[in-house]
Amino acid sequence: MEETRVAFESLRPREPKGTGLRALILGTVVGLLLLAFLPLAFAVASVTSAREHKNREEAARLVAETAAVGFLYASDPSKLITGSVTRICSLADNMCAGDPAAEGRDLHVSASGRPFTVRTRLPGVDPRSIAAPALLYSGLFALMLLTLLYIAITRLIVHPLDHLVRFADRIASGARRIVAPRMGSRETIGLADSIEKMAKTLVRDEDALRDKITELRRTTESLTSAQEQVVRSERLASVGRLAAGLAHEVGNPLTALIGMQDLMLDGDLDDKERRDFLTRMRGETNRIHAVLRDLLDFARPEASSAPDSKHEGSSVRAVAEQVVALAKMQRTSKLVHFVITIEADNPLVAMSSHRLTQVLLNLVLNAIDGAGQVGEPRVEISATWADDRVTFVVVDNGTGVAKEMQRTLFEPFASSKPTGSGTGLGLAVCRGLVEAAFGTIELDGAYTAGARFVVVLPVVQ
């Protein structure tokens, strides 16, 4: 339950960062208004300024024509000089009235078919005085539009979204009251309905996940308990097989020893028979000693080699050739054909030559016993090197290992040989030696043309 709560707390929304929705919308609208109203305001100001300039020009020409008519009939033309008319000249009579240096604009007009030049002085048009009202109007309109837009966005979009965000936060915090606020436009109401359905689905999934976690925990506890029982049963079975094998391998020689001792105690034996019994008793005693020695090697593989050889390396080819030479001395290997496939530049194996010889010799002797059951007896020894590991392979062309023996093949006293032909500790000792060197040994169960053992050992660094 606690793990589920932690998992759902990791899904809680964090505090959002960045610009708000209102600021984004208003900023976009302000940009659009500036893009639309500024050119419009300047266009209105330009058109108004041009219109005003044209009106004033027409007014100045009308004043000039009026002054020219007055000049024809006035007894004193100087009285026509006013604030807007600074000089009048009749081109036909070459007569002028007014200051020649007066400022103004000369307009050519005619009165009663006679040409005149009238200098007028009217105020010009200031574009700023025309553009200012247009800009002010545009600014007020934009401000009112932004205010109304702000109110509409706040009431119709932002407030409903804020309520939905708070509702989602409560759901993420573990709230069980699944009623989403419905306000604003149709779209926000639809969003609220969708969030409410999603929240209910999440709550159902959370409950289902809690149930699954609880069930998984119970299942795990049951499996752990069952595994412990299986391990205990397997350990007891291994101890039982070990005890049974030890009792069998030691009990038979002890029975023979007791029988021969009883015969010797009867005193009815001559010296030759007594010596023969002592020789047999010595043989049975050596047999018991060999079993106990192999069992000790299996329990403590490090005791099988000298302490100063633990960090020495072994030549792969040299050990293989020595093993084949030792194997050829056996009477059962006279007809066996040995094949060694080892590259000359293989590295040294991180195992003493004594241990490596013991492992390979045991595998080769087992291969000799199984070889020849199908065709000509043949035993192959090969070694390859890759990724700082040397892989030994010992193969024979026998019938292989029975399926029922493969699972317990490396356990003590597990043997497929007839009774008295072996102690059943050879492969168990080999596994102990290989694992003590941080290697692996296994039977290739997929190989069907005989028995194929694979040993992987590290190389000397």
Largest sheet: 5 strands, mixed
Mean pLDDT: 76
Low-pLDDT segments, ≥5 res: 1-13, 303-310
Tally of separate helices: 9
Indicate the proportion of strand residues.
Answer: 5-15%
Superfamily (CATH H level) name of the domain at 305-458: Histidine kinase-like ATPase, C-terminal domain
The strand order across the widest sheet is 6-8-9-11-10
| CATH level-1 class of the domain at 305-458 | Alpha Beta
State the distance separating the first and last CA atoms.
50 Å
The whole-angstrom Rg is 58 Å
Which fold name is given in CATH as the topology of the domain at 305-458?
Heat Shock Protein 90
Shape from CA axes?
rod-shaped
User: What string, H for helix and E for strand, traces the elements in order?
Assistant: HHEEEEHHHEHEEHEEHHEE
- CATH architecture tag of the domain at 305-458: 2-Layer Sandwich
Give the class from helix and strand content and strand pairing: alpha+beta
Q: Work out the number of β strands.
A: 11
Q: Helical residue percent?
A: 55-70%
